[in-house]
Amino acid sequence: MKLQISPQALVDGLNLASGASAGRTPKEALQCVLMKASDKALLLMATDLEVGVRCQLAQVDIQKGGEALVSAAKISQVARELTDEVVSLELRENQLHLRGRGVHFQMVSRDPKEFPPVPDLEGEPDFEIEARELRRMAERTAFAAARESTRYAIDGLLWERKGDQLMIVATDGRRLAVASCSVTPKGGASTQKDARVIVPAKTMQLISRVVESSEERLGVKFLPNQLLLKTEHVTISSVLVEGHFPKYEDVVPQDCDKRATVRVQDMHHAVRRAALMTSEESKGVRLCFSAGKLVLSSRSAEQGEASIELDVRYEGETLDIGFNPSFLSDFLKVLEEEEVTFELKEPNRPMVCHCGENYTYVVMPVNLS
Amino acid sequence: MDTVPEWKKIVAFVRDRHPNILRTWFDELRAVGLDGGILNVQCANLPQQRYLQEHASRPFVEAAQSMTGMLLAVRFTIGNHTAIASPGDRFPTPSESQPHEKRSLRSDGWADQLPLNPDYTFESFITGPSNRLAHAASVAVGENPGKTYNPLFLHGRVGLGKTHLLQAIAHRVLANQEAPTIVYLSCEQFINHFIESVERGSLHDFRNRYRQVDVLLIDDMQFMANRERSQEEFFHTFNTLYQSGKQLILTADSPPGEIPSLEERLTSRFGWGLVARLDPPCMETRQAILRAKARRRGIDLPEDVASYVASLKDGNIRELEGAITTIDAYSQQLGRAIDLPLVREALGQEPQAAESVSIPRILEVVTQHYNVKKSDLRGKRRHKSIAFPRQVCMFLARELTTHSLDEIGSYFGGRDHTTVIHATRLVQRLMTKDQNLMTTLEELKSRVTDGSSVRL
Prior knowledge:
The structure holds 2 protein chains of 2 kinds. Chain A is of the alpha+beta class. Chain A is built from 7 helices and 27 strands. In chain B, strand 6, helix 8 and strand 7 form a beta-alpha-beta unit. Chain B folds into 4 domains: 96 residues, 2-Layer Sandwich (GMP Synthetase, Chain A, domain 3), CATH 3.30.300.180; 147 residues, P-loop containing nucleotide triphosphate hydrolases (Rossmann fold, 3-Layer(aba) Sandwich), CATH 3.40.50; 68 residues, Helicase, Ruva Protein, domain 3, CATH 1.10.8.60; 96 residues, Orthogonal Bundle (Chromosomal Replication Initiator Protein Dnaa, Chain: A).
């Protein structure tokens, strides 16, 4: 293998690929990135056996094909420190040589055969989705996914496809976010089939990274126990989480009889301010809804009290209900809309927040007394 | 032992907030685990699971969320009650629970057969002098299908428990036998299947399907009336099953001999086994039924109230059930306990069906249905489009009111009492021949008695 590449392109590719490589594993090959030079492009591959990335770098000048398997962390560190316009990579006798002006790194390359295959999306995808839409949906749901698995929650997000709709659902057992968008069905084998799969949180992070700045369309394919996503240069593959995801239709209450509409900015600001006077013991912020008025208040024995009033359009009887303020601001922070609608029933029943047609957030109250 | 500490509170919450969906077997439900935001609740069998999924899903979700403070969903699984789940146990995976699911009604290609109601078991059937024979025969058949009374033919008026016994037999057979093939359907479905398979030319499949069951239960056999081809097909099915010792259980609203235009060979065969009649329950049985129904909904019905309600309503058990619903709703609205004064108030204003029926009411319903003018029906014109609705009016007036023939005749344009007799007989005769007319008349009758006029 012998090629010339700009260190910046290499860093970008490695950043993406190293997201998939394993953190700690007895199998050292999984901490590595496989660099495979063919006629036209350099392909970077990394996997921890659960999620895999294939990233193609086109702006390279390849003189000789070949494969090298090197530590993902180390080569990323090295590449970041290179200041030249162009560096050369050359594999000779299990040593990868990186050369710039006056710089020479020599890294151990393991046997490429140790590296497991990383799946590619073959054939037609099931459907295509705008990267922009997927980014928005990921942003609007990922925060609600469980950080650590308790028996109330699972580490994963539900992807549900119904015809030309895709829904992503996340829950940590105290809140649940559902975002949806329309997709373009394609000719994949399971095109007609609706699908319901659970995607690991790690895969979601990786996807977010891929769609971060992209304006492309992504092809998506569901296989038994596998999800594949593909842009022009990057393919992500992921195993799926086995288990049952709570039926979100059941979780969302249908019998709310109180409804409040409020400006997102005002509400977010009010929640942030009220949160200042909460403490470990009294985490809740009290929301008191009445005609035309919403009062947020908080109290902490050692700090003091706060009360913030804002205008609201409210229908229903007066209601006092408590929430964890970070559960509210997590949600308010991702909204681009002007207004948000809250639907409520009782102080011990969940609050349903609607913003636009494609986004619903449900949050459990906390007990204030 | 429950693996979810809040389980008792959850059930209590459902009991408190949703008394209308309560069933006695709710006590036997167990929480078998909390996993991935799903509370897994185990019930005993498929009918219970279906009931829970259809009626109790939201109440349980509401209760689970309120009691745990968690955003939970509830999932109903079928499991073995005797097995005690240890805290580390996972809920049964589909493969584990499969042996139980197999012990259900046939599902392959029988998707449209009637589901069993989990409440309709022998345990919940109240016996009395009026239904003792039918009950005893049903139990015997349920224990030993095909060996005691074959066929078992149950008949009686609506709301006396035919369907209850039929389903109870199915439950008993399902509980006792390993994977029996039970087919339970209404007569209408049998006829529809038959017609469909004739149209599709798949009569062979039809025969195979029906002639390979262990227990065949068909409800409302009276709809076989005038269906000659269906009767013939059923005759062959009957013979095949009977000869191979399979159990047949049939119900109808009248004894086999009185079902209009039922072929002789069927009538005689229905009599081979046991024909048992269900009579309207006596006062004591009605009281017992009322108390049992109330208990199932978690309502405490005092003795004097039960006897008062039982004295008001005659035999139909659905009416008794309706009375309990009214009383319960009334007491919840007013927030008062159920006692005699409250029940008098609640049921007092109820229009007594038989009394409120008047000839003008009949006239209104019939003219609406046939789209004719009231004045025409009460006038002299004898054109067929007017004469027939008029005859229907006379028929209904005869059936539903206590007016004399003369009174009826004079109301409809001063006609003779013989005209009324002729009209009544004519409609009766047409009715036995024409299924559509029969259903139309049933509908008109119920509209007249309901007092709910339909605006067209």
